[in-house]
Amino acid sequence: MKKVIVYSTPTCHYCHLAKDFFTAKGVVFEDKDVMTDLVARQEMVTKSGQMGVPVIDIEGKIIVGFDEEGVVKELGI
């Protein structure tokens, strides 16, 4: 399984959708709360150039927002 990191905030609806999707599909992911973790926030901005969440990192492939089709394609599910 590919390594997945979700950069999110607790109040982001699309972040919850993404994490619920991964859970439903049995995809293990690391959740980084960029609201409270300043190091994770800077990491997210460096990787994506974006401040908006969610930012999904699938083994270096960055997806900004919850693009279900893009996630399915990257994960091959």
Which key terms come to mind for this protein?
77 residues; alpha+beta; Glutaredoxin; four-stranded mixed beta sheet; 3 helices
Provide structural commentary.
- The protein is of the alpha+beta class and 77 residues long.
- The chain has a single domain (4-75), classed as Glutaredoxin (3-Layer(aba) Sandwich).
- 40% of the residues lie in helices and 22% in strands.
- The chain contains three helices and four strands; from the N terminus they run βαβαββα.
- A four-stranded mixed sheet has the order 2-1-3-4, with helices on both faces.
- β3 (55-58) and β4 (61-64) form a beta hairpin.
- The longest helix has 12 residues, at 13-24.
- The N and C termini lie close together (10 Å).
- The model has no long low-confidence stretch (mean pLDDT 96).
